[in-house]
Design a protein that fits this description.
- By secondary structure, the protein is an alpha/beta fold.
- It has one domain: P-loop containing nucleotide triphosphate hydrolases (Rossmann fold), CATH 3.40.50.
- It is about 25% helix and about 35% strand.
- The chain has 4 helices and 7 strands.
- A 7-stranded mixed β-sheet has the order 1-7-6-2-5-4-3, covered by helices on one side.
Length: about 140
């Protein structure tokens, strides 16, 4: 079932990320599709802050992954924008990040081709007037 959300500003995107935690608090894979600047990293920041993270949240564009730990839950924030070939995911041991106590948040998942398993949550972010629109598929 597809759901649509209208996001009016940055605070609303942070709130959406925090609310998303209810669906993924036990782990899984979340894919975040959207153009540059559509709010993917802001959404991740909202989710991480809801878990208790107080530091800076940056998009791991150059490092590919930024790890966080919250008790037993490991959260991995991936940005695949600079990925040239899905086989690079094998080289970095991507499948090792997918375990029972992990939440993987993946920006630019289309760069992975068919490499990623079916996500628990698939979000498509886009511009909508002065705000953003999120489609959950």
């Amino acid at each position: 079932m597809e759901r649509e959300y209208q996001i009016k500003n940055e605070q609303a995107m942070l709130n959406f990320g925090a609310a998303l935690l209810n669906k993924v608090k036990h782990g899984g894979l979340v894919t975040l599709h959207g153009e540059l600047g559509s709010g993917k990293t802001t959404l991740v920041r909202g989710l991480l802050q809801a878990l208790g993270h107080q530091g800076r949240v940056k998009s791991p564009t150059y490092t590919l992954v930024e790890p966080y730990r919250f008790g037993r839950l490991a959260v991995y924030h991936f940005d695949l924008y600079r990925l040239h070939d899905p086989e690079e995911l094998d080289a970095m041991g991507f499948r090792d990040y997918l375990h029972a106590d992990s939440l993987c948040l993946v920006e630019w998942p289309e760069k992975a081709g068919d490499y990623l398993p079916v996500p628990l949550v698939r979000l498509h972010l886009s511009y909508s007037g002065t705000g953003r629109r999120i489609l959950e598929k």
